[in-house]
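It would be a great kindness if you could assist me with a short task in structural biology. Thank you for your consideration; the sequence and its tokens are set out here.
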Amino acid sequence: MRKFSAVLMCLMLFGSLLAACGGKNNAESQSNNGGAATGNTGGNAAVSEEPTDDITQRKITLKIHYPLPDETTLRAQEDDKIARFQAKYPNVTIVKDDWKYDINEIGVKMASNEAPTFYNTWATEANFLVERGWVADITELWNNWEYKDDINPVLQNQFIVDGKVYGITQNGYITSTVVNKKLLDAKGVTAPALDWTWDDMYNTAKAVADPKKGISGIAPMGKGNEAGWNWTNFLFEAGGDIETTVDGKVTAAFNSEAGVKALDFYKKLKWEANAIPQDWALGWGDAVSSFQQGRTAMVIAGAFDVAQAALNEGGMKPEDVLVYPMPAAEKGGKHYGILGGNYLVINPNATKDEQEMAFRYITFDYFTDDALKSVEDTINARKAEGKYYVPTPLEYFSEDSEYAAKVQAIYDKYDNVYKYDPNLFSLLEGKPEAQFGTQDYYATMSNVVQESFSKKDTDSKKQLDVAAQYVQENYFDKIEQK
């Protein structure tokens, strides 16, 4: 469209053939630079405006990922970021879009060109989005970014596919077990070592459980997709996988010997140890609430969420909230926990200018003094309220970066910052979720978990075979591969 306008201008002004060609070349230059030019060449007034390589001089509109209406605190933080961003880039118009990523909606959003310039997604979605062409390749932008080497590689690697970068990490987690030490002490149970096993978890849960008082030794999630999510940690620890992908075909793999071992362990917690809640149909919020209310000694989730609720809503003390890695199936085994996280990805339908400015917006507060000040302000605000600040175990920055040291220096100044055991991080072993049909698999496994908790003496192998066949026929076989 820019080329057509420039040529038309030349014709209307009866320029020479040379002038017409000059106008055409100038328009091509504008197109290549991706935005409107400003100013004249200074000679013939008929010549198109001179293109500029300065992106800050070109009008750009970003439709940004914006928090949901009920996330008032996050909205206030985002509004502050928008104001600071536009102060630096007054050429950018910001349009707020609170659409939240949904695997069932993203295709329609892309087809109708209604997706934001950038949007949030999860670690599970990388291959799915890349194979469908719904995320931009931002490798060049990434390689030109001065802080790329300071990003947490464990998290960032989830959105590097075939050597190309397709997303930017915001934060992440490795699923952990959080232990209520006060309940252990009340029963005279010694807290297990951080390098613990399934036997240690079983024995601790059995010893602490007091069904008559409504106290469970452990509260595995038993309803919703989170029930399948909780159980999958044990599948990984036993050496199993959710699925395999060979020549583009996705095949269910969780009905393996490892799967049977993991499901049998769940049944032992229920039927032998009597260690799980009598009302075991707990969703994520139910399980976390049970922990913060002192009704279970252990819960499986992202450590930040559990500690935050226990300390600031449950009135628990830091010394009573112990964060453990997931237990190894056997001594010397891996402490696998599901690796998850939040990512921002850029719309491939956006112009090059929009993509670059979206990248600048996403990373605007990364590694900045403003961000450090925000952390310290938040800690002080929590202190004034008599509350604790709970750091996220996995931040976007690498733990050995200079910026991490600055953040840690702030944490060290305050007695209301929750401190993880320093030995924890050497034991955490994150394993990514499945890349295809993850939520469908979780939903199916939730049914298996529920059956296992409600019926004694079920056949684990048969249960898993039925579940695997269902997932294969209804989901995996329908996955379109490119």
Q: What stands out?
A: Residues 2-53 form one domain.
